[in-house]
């Protein structure tokens, strides 16, 4: 008998949010905010024609409108601008070397700290995009939100620089290293901060152990769903910064084994998230209690928003998103990921009891 192993041509995408208590919820200002934000971004000519086509397929305005369904029109617009800014940053840093990514990160942080200063002539275009986004956000932003957003955005850009270094060296992290880095590079922490743009939640409340657990769990669920949905895209371009690739290499699993491991991990994260949600304290100040309640529900909603956007946009599955959402069957590309230069010797499994 032949010992040749037949590689699978399709895989079933796990339905990991089938019992998630937050349903799909779309901001009623989606259409007008999308139109305005797209027109605004087009003024910068930040993309090549090919990248512009990819951008148009993503509809990050839909993601923002799903993620911030309770924001008023101004808040929805700022959310749309943020999602579009993330694409500008990702597009330009993905092709930058570590030094170039560091320069771009420094520009972004200077913009957030000095938004009223004109940007130097000839500077990377992302700086002016970020400046105009931030000036618009400041019109409705509380000082507390501003501080939280800048802190989390700095984590994001520092992570992007580290990712550029890993990409240059063709390095594949171990699982623990991967999550430590991906929790920043995914941009979800500043995305969650945007939920509180009009709120004034004190630092000591945001640092409550249960709220911190919700933020961490929400970030990890977004990572897991993103990396499962984007695996084919990243496989085609030999991008090793993906959880599926990391698990296969780190645990010496085949593709099916990695999917099962990741699905089980997600189940554990869901369980811990729902437990932490039930343990968030109530506060005697009615306004603070209302804001905390809205914030933690906003995290749960974002997990759902990210999942449904993955199918409703054309970023990962083209025009077949709704079909794949229903059948969960995805055609698996055959292009192999190159072997890593080095591996982390230690594997720490997150969310293990």
UniProtKB/TrEMBL annotation:
Belongs to the terpene synthase family. One of its GO terms (biological process) is isoprenoid biosynthetic process. Its EC number is 4.2.3.-. Keywords: Lyase, Magnesium, Metal-binding. This is Terpene synthase. The keyword Lyase applies. It comes from the Eukaryota. Its cofactor is Mg(2+). GO terms for molecular function: metal ion binding; terpene synthase activity. InterPro entries: Isoprenoid_synthase_dom_sf, Terpene_cyclase-like_2. The keyword Endoplasmic reticulum does not apply.
């Amino acid at each position: 008998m032949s010992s040749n192993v037949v590689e699978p041509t399709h895989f079933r995408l796990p339905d990991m949010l089938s019992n998630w208590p937050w349903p799909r919820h779309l901001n009623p200002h989606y259409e007008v905010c999308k139109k305005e934000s797209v027109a605004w971004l087009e003024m910068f000519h930040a993309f090549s024609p090919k990248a512009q086509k990819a951008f148009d397929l993503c509809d990050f305005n839909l993601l923002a409108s799903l993620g911030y369904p309770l924001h008023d029109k101004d808040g929805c617009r700022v959310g749309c601008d943020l999602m579009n800014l993330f694409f500008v940053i990702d597009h330009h840093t993905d092709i930058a070397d570590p030094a170039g990514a560091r320069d771009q990160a420094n520009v972004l942080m200077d913009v957030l700290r000095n938004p009223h200063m004109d940007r130097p002539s000839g500077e990377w275009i992302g700086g002016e995009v970020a400046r105009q986004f931030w000036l618009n956000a400041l019109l409705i932003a509380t000082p507390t939100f501003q501080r939280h957003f800048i802190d989390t955005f700095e984590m994001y850009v520092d992570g992007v620089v580290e990712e550029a270094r890993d990409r240059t060296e063709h390095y594949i992290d171990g699982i623990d290293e991967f999550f430590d880095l991906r929790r920043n590079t995914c941009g979800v922490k500043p995305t969650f901060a945007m939920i509180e743009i009009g709120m004034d939640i004190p630092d000591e409340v945001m640092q409550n152990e249960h709220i911190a657990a919700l933020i961490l769990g929400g970030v990890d669920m977004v990572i897991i769903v993103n990396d499962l949905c984007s695996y084919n895209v990243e496989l085609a371009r030999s991008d090793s910064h993906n959880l599926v690739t990391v698990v296969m290499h780190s645990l010496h699993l085949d593709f099916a084994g990695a999917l099962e491991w990741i699905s089980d991990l997600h189940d554990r994260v869901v369980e811990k998230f729902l437990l932490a949600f039930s343990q968030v304290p109530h506060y005697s100040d009615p306004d603070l209690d209302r804001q905390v309640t809205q914030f933690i529900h906003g995290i749960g909603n974002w997990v759902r928003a990210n999942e449904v956007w993955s199918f409703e946009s054309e970023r990962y599955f083209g025009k077949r998103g709704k079909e794949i959402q229903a059948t969960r069957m995805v055609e698996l590309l055959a292009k192999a990921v190159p072997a890593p230069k080095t591996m982390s010797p230690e594997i720490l499994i997150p969310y293990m009891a």
